[in-house]
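Hi R.,

Here's the chain you asked about this morning:
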Amino acid sequence: MTTAHDAVVLAGGAARRLGGVDKPGVRVGGRPLLDRVLAACAGAGRTVVVGAPRPTVRPVGWTREENPGSGPVAALDAGLMALHTPATGAPTGSPAEVLLALSADLPFLDGSTVRRLLAALDADPEAEAALLTDAGGRRQPLVAAYRTGPLRRALDTARAAHQGLDGLPLRTLTAGLRLVEVPADPAAPLASFDCDTWEDIATARARIRDHGAVLDEWITAVKTELGIDLDVDTGVLLDLARDAAHGVARPAAPLTTFLVGYAAAKAAEEGTAPAEAVAEAARKAAALAQRWAAEQDEAG
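And the predicted structure, written out as tokens:
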């Protein structure tokens, strides 16, 4: 089971190296950077975004620092405060004892990385924060899970010591916490890759198409665009498209997969689980395509 947790996503930076563009809204793989991060932390009980409100892939609460643009420590403090203030629009309820702190410019962050951070914190009762480390061993305090109580105390200590939080670096907080490092997963080595420049954006967009999971990225983007929350076996659908193209005619591939989706939707309306409905419709259509191919073989 995943540890109960909330999330604060920092999305209010000035993006000076991007010419002041709305960085959280920049699209990579067809999806805004902010939406990609929100999808990765979808398991959070409550989520607050520190930044200017905008449409998002799922409901979240919104807040701003007292002095907008005053840095990540002030932003994290504002997000944590907002979790205690239902007026921000965050779902009501008591704040969780664990908080994910994430920046909004992580195109390759995924749910697996989030779960690894939570598991690392849960596995070490003495740890007060679990920070992802990148390939170079550098700690990433905004790809991290914190125990809410110690984080609150660290923020209060920093405020008292510096007469405020504006402009403070994140190491001001992490220096006073007991940390556990979570090395980058070889299966997700780019989880902490952030987009600070247009070159970074270009690199991320290129990797989306070349990193071996372009179909998964595309399917996720389509499901998000269409408002579909459905896990399907893409291999089954690809095999069906291949059989239809080879056994009937090339244009039969997209038309057949469309009809399979339509049939699955009708079956789901009648009570069949959506994923099972897709699998059964695909099986029937694939068998039909194979029968067509067999007839052609028999005809020579």
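The longest strand covers residues 139-147.

Let me know if you need anything else.
M.
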